[in-house]
Amino acid sequence: MTKPGLLTLTIKDKSALYLAYMPYVINGGLFIPTNSSYRLGDEVFMLLNLMGEEEKIPVAGTVIWMTPKGAQGKRTAGIGVQFSDQDQGNTQKKIENYLAGALGGDKPTHTM
Questions:
Q1: Nearest to 60 by CA among 34, 37, 88, 20
Q2: 3-class DSSP state of 98
Q3: Mean pLDDT in residue range 52-62
């Protein structure tokens, strides 16, 4: 299976963002539902649309998490992408502003 050169992710509300965000990752990261095949360490580029903003955020990153199809607990298949150093924390800060007050909760996410 070939992987797309560009991932797009649209997150429309705070609960979906909470489920996808990986705050424990250096530079931050997001879980992206996909059935495409990736390997740990793959470089990916995504266009992120947050909370209905008009402008899409371009983000480069590395695959650091994989949930295969058919994973136990009916988890969503996909990959976790760590934002690259070049992003300089900008995307992470933007996401954490949207999630202010919700981080550190005990609700499960797509990854943990």
A1: 88
A2: helix
A3: 92
User: How buried is 60 (Cβ within 10 angstroms: 0-12 exposed, 13-18 middle, 19+ buried)?
Assistant: middle
CB-based burial label for 19 (10 Å; 0-12, 13-18, 19+): middle
- Give the C-alpha separation, 31 to 63, whole Å: 9
Kind and range of the H or E run holding 90: helix 90-98
Cα–Cα nearest to 63, from 75, 49, 80, 48: 80
| CATH (domain of 49) | 2.40.10.220
User: For the segment 71-100, what is each residue's pLDDT rounded down to a tens digit?
Assistant: 877 788 899 999 999 887 789 999 998 888
Predicted confidence (pLDDT) at residue 2 exceeds the cutoff of 50: no
Greater confidence (78 vs 103) lies with: 78
Tokens describing residue 101 = 């007050």
Range of the domain at 48: 7-87
109 belongs to a structural domain = no
